[in-house]
Amino acid sequence: MSWPQLNRRLHLYLALSLLPWFLVYGFSSLFFAHPSAGQRLYNDGVPTWTLRFERPFNDPAPDGGGGALKALGKKIMETCGLEGSFGAYRHSPTQVNVYVYTFWKSTEVKYFLDRKLLRVEDRRFRWDQFLTGMHARGGFDQDGFLDDLWAVLVDVVCLGFLTWITTGIIMWWQVKHTRMWGWAALGAGAGLFSAFLTWL
Predict the structure, then answer these.
(1) 78 is a domain residue
(2) In the structure, what pLDDT confidence band is assigned to residue 162 with cuts at 50, 70 and 90?
(3) Tens-place pLDDT, residues 130-139
(4) Of 154, 97, 104, nearest in space to 129 by CA
(5) Kind and range of the H or E element at 118?
(6) Which of 13, 37, 172, 195 has a Cα-to-Cα distance from 91 of 20 to 30 A?
């Protein structure tokens, strides 16, 4: 098999294997750019959040963030019987929120320090939030194996995108009679991108 044939096959099969990721990032970007579209889809009077339960809790919250706040978030999750990836942050001086999420469901725990109370609320499922959640999820800041595996897959997909672009450029350069149109397309894209970098 010659190098041009190998390059074309790599380009073809990369496109097919990366198709689900292209679809997720493409559709989710629409909802990032037009969040009101998702709001209109689910403007049916059903509340976004529903109360699951409340229970007393008394634990001092750390002054700073980082590992200490995450440790508190983990303790709150254990107290409430929750599992999954989570983030903990200070909503106010008297409130700490713990956001627990999977691709299919999300739960928020509000810890009211002054009232020594935990309130657990579940968010209704919405396709727009499902897609934007998949788009934004990544990183190695969670403890679970599947979370790390997802982060590794995101890295692999990013490398796949770059390889797909590279093989496409090689294919374009090998066809001499289309080089002029390729330069025009490349110049138009780069020019528009540079203009927005300057103006915005």
Answers:
(1) yes
(2) very high
(3) 999 999 888 8
(4) 104
(5) strand 117-123
(6) 37
The position carrying tokens 């303790």 is 75
Nearest Cα residue to 141 out of 85, 187, 93: 85
Q: Are residues 63 and 114 in the same domain?
A: yes
Residue 70 falls inside a structural domain: yes
- How many helices and strands in the chain, by DSSP H and E? 7, 5
Boundaries of domain holding 20: 1-46+124-175
Return the percentage of the chain with pLDDT > 70, whole number.
98
Radius of gyration of the chain (CA): 23
Helix H or strand E encompassing 2: none
The answer to the question of residue 140 being in a domain is: yes
Percentage helix, strand, coil, to 5, in the chain?
Answer: 60, 20, 25
Same domain, 36 and 131: yes
Helix axes of 145-174 and 179-199: crossing angle, nearest 10 degrees: 130
* Residue 110 CA to its chain's centroid (Å): 23
Same domain, 58 and 116: yes
Provide the pLDDT for residue 65.
63
Q: Is residue 111 part of a domain?
A: yes
- The tokens 């229970």 sit on which residue? 55
